[in-house]
Amino acid sequence: MLRLCPHRSPLLSQTPKEYPDGHGGKVRFPLGDVSFADESSSFEAGDPASKDENSQPKSAIGIPNYKRIGDGSYLALGCGGTFTFRFVDNALVDVEGPDLYVFEVGPLVEGMDLAVSSDGMDWIEVGRISGGRADVDIKPHTKPGDVFHYVRLTDMKASCRGRWPGTDIDAVGAIGAAIQFSLSGSVLFDTGKWDLKPEAEADIDALAAKLAAYSKGRVIVEGHTDNVGSDADNQTLSVNRAQAVLAYLKARPELSSFSFKAEGHGESLPTATNDTEEGQAKNRRVDVVLIPGAE
After folding, report:
1. 81 with 168, same domain?
2. Last residue of some domain: 145, 175, 205?
């Protein structure tokens, strides 16, 4: 089964939109609503922490919606607090100019430390970013073609007094945004195999049509497994499955203007718990990341 994303359809959300930055200005995102963080991975409140209603990680997920201080529409990190989040239906990539926007709100403008990661384990330190509307260019710290699913923000302890200590985050969005599609592994392959099932072609054809709507771009095909079996076997399986989907897509004439790359991640990037059969089924997948317009 082709799954565009767990929250919203990228093709329906790709229209450029402007969003209030909380300081009287606006920020333009080429892919609209799909540009923003989707899931909270972890939150470690600082000391002192803010009030409970302003210490909810979900408040910093999705599009900016800040209205006033203390209304629970943003996440207060607390003094030295750390917030890690994940892009699910999109990913962060380097483009010309700023790549990431952090919408900080509230009466004080405070700094943060920023790090990015492809897998949530190995991190690249981007360094300190300013408060307020923070425009971040990741190019000096990354390699061409890198795709990041995780971002970590850490309060710099610049302001630890008052009712809302630490940085206050309304939203975080990727202007350098790739779009992510998911294909169910159980639909594509038999258990332990990487030869495409005949019935898998319909789902991949549907995906090819959605990719072709963007005219050109860079496509990264990522294979993923559950945790059954050895790490080495799962890594090999994920690589071969990614290559099988890539070969099929690359052969489609409507995608001749696209470039392709295959990656295998084994069991290292689960989207659900591996403690249940349902969770394992979700983790057996092939994700297809599209960077529209890229060579």
Report:
1. yes
2. 175
